[in-house]
What we know:
Layout: H1 13-17, H2 35-39, E1 46-53, E2 58-63, E3 68-73, E4 80-86, E5 89-93, H3 96-103, E6 112-114, E7 122-129, E8 142-145, H4 153-159, H5 169-181, H6 185-189, E9 196-204, E10 211-214, E11 223-228, E12 232-238, E13 258-264
Antiparallel strand pairs: 1-13, 2-12, 3-11, 3-13, 4-5, 4-9, 4-12, 6-7, 7-11, 8-9, 9-10
Zinc ion binds at residues 81, 150-151, 168-169, 239, 241, 248.
Amino acid sequence: MKRSPFTLEPPDAAARKAVKPVICYPTDTLPRPDLETYRALRDSLELVETLVIPPRDAATWEVPAGHFCRLVCSEGSQVGDLNLFHLHNLSERFYSGKTRALNGTHVGSGDQLFSNFPYLRPIATITHDTLDWYGFDEFGGSVHDVIGTRCDPYTHNLLSHGAQYHYCCHSNLTRALAKKTGLSLHEAEQHVHDVLNVFMCTGFTRDTGQYFMKASPVRPGDYLEFFAEIDLLGCMSACPGGDCSSEHSSDAATCHPLVVEVYKAAKPPHGWKAPPTNGFDRTHGV
Ligand SMILES: [Zn+2]
């Protein structure tokens, strides 16, 4: 948070501040998906799996490469915290930070979700978002952020001077991943990573730059849909914050289940190939 300065402004402060920003990662050279070839398949999708994620809990599911997956708000306004892994290699996982650097603070149709180093490749492509009408609101807020991390009991412990709460998204994801993989809780916890905050409405305050949340605009029937570029293991928590209008890390908020649907496409998108892992040679100058 930026506080009142201790330092006097230099004489050319206004000129320095007036310098126009440049985009850190110009994505003109980034291979982009041909969204229309993906969307052309949406009319012939076959539902092959439906999963319900209970409130204040998480669940895992598999999405084979070439399948579509919908994350659905089913009963009431509710936020979901999503982790994605390579189904056959837990060490390759969704990389929120680089996805943010490449796409922006919030993701939507046509954006791709990237995996961590040394794999760095698109692992999922967002193909539909029923909240795309929201854009950015007057506070600078939007939905589906890659700027928050996930609610977790460690931060809660610090902020509350020692309280213990066991149903933060971090713990929910840990329990679900341990159950799926047979790993111990502590082993599974090491694989839980910064999430895509599905349906959550967030931004940074203009005056202090602090991370804020507000009531999600999501309503029953809304969904976020993605295409699996590789075999994926999904893990999502129905956040204890509910619609995240007031607080999380407690049982205070009204919470609802979320639904996951996996769809088989009749054929792959025209010209589609599963993305290879990153081409950097990893010699790091040696
Ligand atoms: Zn949460």
